[in-house]
Design goal:
Blueprint lengths: L11 E2 L2 E2 L22 H68 L3 H4 L1
Length: 115
């Protein structure tokens, strides 16, 4: 067996060994250039801002929904009160008719008497 006296040095990288074949270029995983990458603090700041905006939107939606519910409740109460007034009016007229019939009977003006 023949031993190679001067081995070819391999180019090293952060990932380990690199192929010496020129058509096998190392792949770059990030599509954005390094200068345009957003820093962690900037991303967190943006996330906090978006969260605050979402909270405000939710608060406004809840207020609007509460207002709609309040209006709906007022409308239902008004409908109930109107229905109750209508029932009382019907009862009143019915009671008035009964009372009038009772008075006619007491006065002797019934169908039999009046013929």
């Amino acid at each position: 067996m023949a031993e190679i006296s001067n081995p070819i040095p391999l180019a090293s990288s952060s990932n380990g060994r690199v192929s010496g074949k020129p058509w096998k270029a190392a792949t770059i995983r990030s599509q954005a250039p390094k200068g345009r990458k957003i820093q962690w603090e900037e991303r967190m700041e943006r996330t906090k801002r978006e969260q605050a905006i979402k909270e405000l939107e939710n608060e406004l939606k809840e207020e609007e929904q509460a207002e709609k519910q309040r209006r709906r409740q007022i409308t239902m109460e008004r409908k109930k009160a109107a229905e109750e007034r209508r029932k009382l009016e019907e009862e009143k007229t019915k009671m008035g008719a009964r009372k009038a019939a009772r008075r006619r009977r007491q006065a002797g003006r019934t169908k039999k008497v009046n013929g």
